[in-house]
């Protein structure tokens, strides 16, 4: 190497931006219902410009863990967000489903509902992380920084924001009746002025009278209209494009926003506002922002993941992310921002659609079957009353008072209920409380996942597992929640900061996300975490 080349190389070293030992801002993105294969499947239609990349910032420039699977059953929104935040299994963080039954009162419980708080910005029930039984990465970051780290979370769904925001963050979500960004008295005495101004800006009403149309020529899509006959379009939507928004900004209009790409755009715009107003990433203390995009889940449920709607929504979200990342680059500098991407769960196709192409598929209303089963159980045990007190799929809750009153053997009742449940269409496996609390099921690929999702203080006395591509309830066209690969497989991707471009195929888990971030920051892991640091990411430090 001659002296001129050495001089140029030396200049390049000094002129390159110095990367800090830790990122100035960590952005954790969760795309609701984003199955692990979908970004690779649709990447040909993603933005691919030098300074304008959305998902391709991960696919081309990031570290990709392509074999990431949840290790628990009950793959639901609340469960996945809690696992991503805490690095723990449901048995540890306590969020076993989106909702459950209170074992003492028999009342229905919603995962983040909190009657001791007040909703700010709209009317309705309020929310907090009171039901979350473990600390989150953001909690540990807050503690390690002596409260100096700025921690925010936003999502269309309350559970998407509350659970990732943790116990010390500030969480916001969207009210579907008014379109407002809202929060809770758990976080603030009153809704902050910047959120009030956002609600009054007119942005939420700017999509009135517009039509959601395909963003590409239809020939460019992987999906087609083959599953359209099996869809259940939400109220206000027709079958097939275009999807026309109402002319007036009313309750119907706000309810429809979440089923269009406009919902994610509003989420991203409020996320930008949070970064700006809090001056995130502007000092030497690492800040944390969680952004959970919910529209993919809403659309996938009603139109199915094999629909043109689901595919076009991800193309639109890609553009929304490209714009958001461009904003972060200007505001903080992407070399200072570590961006993590994952999903709370995957999804299966519409059962009827799968049957139409030669796979198995079943749709039932399993909970209703227990009216007849209760009669059979009463005759079997010679009692009056309903032994199955409540159902909250996949959990069956027994009437413990009735069992005690009639001096029945609780384990015998569990076994009898399990035997009846096992004969129902669409049921593949049944587990009793005694099994899940006393037996070692580590040898059983399905049983071990059910066991990891079992929270004794909240779960039912009998747990059902659906057969592949089977639905216990018909509330949507397609769903998730099973222990099968199509529901457990999600992306675990990183980009920005010092992240290298590489693809890793060994099996990992979304549990690993929180502990990896903790290891990178050299702070305490979340208190009940069960995940393991991803060595390729930790080595960047």
Automatic annotation (TrEMBL):
GO MF, one example: alkaline phosphatase activity
Any Pfam family: Phosphodiest
Signal sequence, renumbered to the chain: 1-20
Binding site for substrate: 98, 157-159
Record InterPro entries: Alkaline_phosphatase_core_sf, Alkaline_phosphatase_prok, Phosphodiest/P_Trfase
Active site: 77
Gene3D superfamilies in alphabetical order: 3.30.1360.150, Alkaline Phosphatase, subunit A (3.40.720.10)
Keywords (A to Z) from UniProt: Metal-binding, Phosphoprotein, Signal
Keyword Phosphoprotein in annotation: yes
Annotated protein name in UniProt: Alkaline phosphatase family protein
């Amino acid at each position: 190497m001659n002296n001129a080349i050495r001089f140029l190389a030396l200049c390049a070293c000094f002129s390159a931006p110095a990367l800090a030992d830790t990122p100035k801002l960590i952005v954790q993105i969760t795309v609701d219902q984003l199955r692990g294969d979908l970004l690779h499947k649709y990447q040909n239609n993603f933005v691919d410009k030098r300074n304008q990349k959305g998902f391709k910032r991960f696919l081309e420039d990031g570290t990709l863990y392509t074999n990431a699977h949840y290790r628990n059953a009950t793959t639901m929104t609340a469960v996945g967000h809690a696992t991503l935040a805490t690095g723990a299994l449901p048995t540890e963080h306590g969020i076993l489903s989106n909702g459950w039954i209170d074992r003492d009162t028999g009342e229905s419980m919603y995962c983040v509902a909190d009657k001791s708080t007040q909703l700010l910005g709209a009317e309705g029930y309020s929310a907090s992380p009171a039901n979350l039984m473990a600390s989150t990465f953001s909690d540990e970051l807050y503690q390690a920084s002596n409260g100096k780290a700025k921690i925010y979370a936003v999502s269309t769904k309350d559970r998407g924001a509350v659970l990732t925001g943790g116990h010390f963050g500030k969480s916001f979500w969207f009210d579907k009746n008014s379109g407002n960004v809202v929060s809770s008295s758990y976080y603030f005495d009153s809704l902050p002025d910047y959120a009030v101004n956002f609600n009054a800006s007119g942005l939420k009403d700017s999509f009135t009278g517009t039509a959601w149309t395909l963003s590409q020529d239809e020939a460019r899509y992987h999906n087609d209209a083959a599953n359209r006959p099996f869809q259940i379009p939400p109220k206000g939507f027709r079958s097939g494009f275009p999807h026309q928004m109402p002319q007036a900004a009313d309750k119907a209009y706000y309810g429809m926003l979440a089923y269009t790409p406009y919902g994610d755009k509003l989420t991203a715009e409020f996320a930008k506002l949070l970064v700006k107003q809090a001056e995130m990433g502007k000092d030497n203390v690492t800040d944390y922002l969680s952004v959970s995009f919910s529209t993919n889940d809403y659309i996938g449920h009603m139109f199915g993941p094999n629909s043109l709607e689901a595919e076009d929504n991800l193309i639109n979200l890609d553009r929304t992310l490209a714009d958001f990342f461009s904003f972060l680059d200007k505001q903080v500098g992407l070399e200072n921002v570590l961006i993590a991407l994952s999903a709370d769960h995957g999804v299966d196709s519409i059962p009827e659609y799968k049957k139409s192409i030669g796979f198995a598929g079943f749709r039932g209303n399993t909970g209703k079957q227990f009216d007849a089963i209760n009669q059979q159980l009463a005759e079997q045990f010679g009692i009056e009353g309903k032994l199955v007190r409540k159902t909250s799929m996949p959990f069956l809750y027994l009437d413990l008072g009735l069992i005690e009153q009639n001096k029945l053997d609780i384990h015998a009742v569990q076994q009898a209920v399990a035997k009846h449940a096992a004969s129902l269409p669409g049921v593949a496996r049944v587990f009793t409380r005694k099994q899940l609390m006393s037996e070692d099921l580590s040898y059983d690929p399905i049983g071990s996942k059910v066991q990891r999702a079992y929270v004794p203080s909240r779960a039912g006395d009998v747990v059902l597992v659906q057969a592949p591509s089977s639905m216990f309830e018909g509330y949507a066209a397609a769903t998730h929640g099973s222990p099968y690969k199509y529901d457990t497989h999600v992306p675990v991707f990183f980009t920005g900061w010092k992240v290298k471009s590489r693809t890793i195929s060994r099996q990992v888990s979304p549990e690993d996300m929180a502990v990896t971030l903790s290891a990178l920051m050299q702070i305490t892991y979340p208190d009940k975490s069960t995940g393991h640091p991803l060595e390729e990411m930790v080595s960047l430090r």
